[in-house]
Structures are given as structure tokens and as C-alpha cells.
Amino acid sequence: MKRIQDLVLGAGAVGVNCALALAESGRDVAIVDRSFPCAECSYGNAGWITPCHSLPIPGPGLVTQTLKWMLQSDAPLYIKPSLRPSVLRWLWRFYRHCNADAQHRGLTAMATLNQHVVPLTRELINRYQIECTFSQRGILYAFGTEKGLEKGTRERDLLDAHGIEGTLLTREEVLTKEPALREHLVGGVYYPQEADCIPDRFVTQLADQLPSLGVDCHYQTSVNQLHVSGQSISKVETSAGVFQPENVVIAIGAWSVQLARKLGVQLSIQPGRGYSITLKQQPGLPRIPVNLSEAKVAVTPWANKVRIAGTMELAGFDSPVNPKRMEAVLRGARDYLPDFRADPPMENWAGMRPVTSDGLPLIGRSRTLPNLLIATGHGMLGITQSAVTGHLICDLINKRDPLVSVAPFDPERQT
User: Fold this and answer.
1) Are 155 and 145 within 8 A, CB to CB?
2) Fewest beta carbons less than 10 Å away: which of 42, 83, 131, 409?
3) Confidence band (pLDDT; 50, 70, 90) for 74?
């Protein structure tokens, strides 16, 4: 049995950042993952570090829209009907947050958290000389309809009131900034403070730093059993041996629910599958990251390739990958980029995002087991919030005042 101060379960973006921050603070850390670093949801996303995504997913009008989308398997947000009690509980809580008051409360918490995401990510990249094409070049939101632009304008106003700057653009200004877009757009919003990187390079190169910081890394290692004694986790059995940790950090994304449930801890998360297609650079693509707003598709161009990502499918762990949704992502890109022909893709990808019912991540100590910390539920913002989450988990374990209040991110909130 190996005594350890902190055992981090999960080597995605969030888990690696938790292990890194703890090791940098001088603690004795081990990290365990069933695969390799960045093998799941952190791998194939758009790579955005994006404060302007501070509005929670549930919001006014989404219930009606979601009901319509349930009849359309390739809709931007698809929730598969289910009678499973855990899904029904999640849907009820999600429904309760689809209103302006709840969205504004969530925005306040998320904007406070997200003011740190770009500086902290940049600091890590500079400190460890991570080569992941990090660039703070902003993100352009393009709108093809007046209704979409009205919604985007309202959201820009809300974000601006919380310190997240966005500039409204006319159709002509949008096309000047990004000529690859179709001419019959109606307008856009440009958020200049947003950044992006190639996500797998960011995570894997950070993970490469862990051994030199003294972290005991165990990849391709399964967690077999967690033992509880009194009100704490006393030991963790893995295929690499038994650990006796002072603290356990669960950071395994959508799979955190199953592991936490074994400990009697209930997390309000459902797995939401996202899709992406990575292609070689080719004519007709934008020069900067673009959100094709009505299609809910993100396009991130890098030097030698481009990634097109989008859609959210809440259909459980067992549902197969849906080719229609992959095609819907490409179709959305073609609708906005008239000269884009989608040459054969380098890679098609789908991954499970951990989606909370109120749209806020779960970050903090468990009330049920005080030596258990939860770092999951980031939805589409795992890369965005990974560095700040690592910072917060490190603050809590070292009994420092956290960088921001973690009260809104209470892992066991059941609102």
C-alpha cells in the first residue's frame, strides 16, 4: 500500500491541471487514468479558451426549442427521450434552469470564474513552453438571420455587463474581418479576448511535465474499488496497486457520476456527446475562429489543419455514434462558407462531455466525504476551464482562500 497526499483520478485536461497545480505547490501526487492523457473529451474539441461562453446552456426559450429538436436526430441539441430515473431528475432540474433569473445567476458565477481562464492558460503555456499554437486572436460569431442576431446582441449585452467585451458588427464589417463567410449574413459579434490552441498538444505536453515534478503517473490503470472508513476515503485499489491518499480528486469527466455514486455521492451530470471533423487546410476556410451561430458549429483554423466541431447529443453512454450528426456539422459549415468543399477528413471524432443540469461545473469538496474533491461537469468548457479548475482544487487542498468563490460550483448541489 502506498501512502500519498493527493490521488487524482483522470488525465484529461482537468485532471492533468489538478495534478500539475498540486505538484507545483509541493505536494506528493499520483495520477491514474484508464487510458492515456487526453484520450477522451479533451482530445477532439475546438480548442477554444473562451470567456464569452459564460452563459449557461439552459436559458429562456430552450425548453420549447428542445422539444422541437427531440423530433430531429441531427438537431444542434438533441435529448433522447428516456424514462430512466436519473435522466428524468436531470431533465427536471434542467427545465427549472431554463429561465432568465437562473441564467443570470449562472452567468455571474461563470463570468467571475472565466475572467481567469485566458491568463492562467497562457501562463502555463509560457512557463512550460508548450507548443500548441496558442493564440489570443478572438472569436467571430456570424449570424445568418435577424432572429439569430437579436439573440446574439442580447447575449453580448449580458456578457458586456459582466466584463466580457464584445463588438457588434454590421454585415460588411463581418465580411471584412472574415471574407470566407457567405455574403447574405446579417451581422456578427467579435469577442477579442478569446484564445485558442490545439487541445491535445496542450494537454499531452502538460502531462509530460508531471514526472519531472514528482508526480507518480499510472496510465492504462483501472480503479477497482474505493474504500470508505467513517467519513473519508481510506484507500483506493487500482490495477497498479493500492493507494492510501489524504485526498482524492475525481476528474474523469462524464464517467465521474458512476464512480461518485459508488461512494454515495450524487452528481447531477449527463453525458453529452460532441462531434468534430478535422481536415487539412483548404480553400474556403476562415482565417480566425468562427462560431456559425444558427448552426451551432465552431470552426478553428490552424496552420496545417482545421477543426469543425458542434452539436450536443444527450443519449446516454450506450448510444452509438450517429453519422447524421457528423454530417450535420459539415452541412452547417458549408451553409456559412460557400467555397468550402470538405475534402476527405483527416479524422472524425466523437466524445462525451459531462453536462450539468444548471450549466455550471462541479468544483469543490464533497459534503458527504470531506477528503473527496470533485472537478468535473465542465460541459463544452473543459479546455477553457481546466487551468482555473486546477488552481481552485489546489487552493482548497492547501487550505488557501480560493481564487474565486466555489460556492456556486458545489459538487453536490441538487437545485
Assistant:
1) no
2) 83
3) low
